[in-house]
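Please, structure for the following, as tokens.
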Amino acid sequence: MTLSNNSGTGNRLDAAFTALADPTRRAILSRLAEGEARLSEIARPFAMSFNAVSKHLKVLERAGLARRRVVGREHLFSFNGAGLAAAAEWINAHHNMWEERLGTLDGYLRRYEGGD
């Protein structure tokens, strides 16, 4: 099994995993999964400035994990589940590869231990 990493997919993966590595951004995504929200609503549970939360949202937007919709002066944010597709695909491919390799090793060990 070959697991390629072309630059387009690699950049999306890097951005997604970088965004997901931060617990604040994961908490923001959990909030956005509940529905669209204003910056003030997103920032409310965090002990940080609106500017800091806004920077986290920009990272999520660049990673394709959040969307911004502007209505007049309001900025509304929502979760973009499609942004997780590349990360989920990469994880599944690696999971399947390791399951296959471990299955091969298990078969070898059974033959070795059983004297087959």
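Strands lie at 37-38, 66-71, 74-79. Residues 1-7 have pLDDT under 50 and may be disordered.
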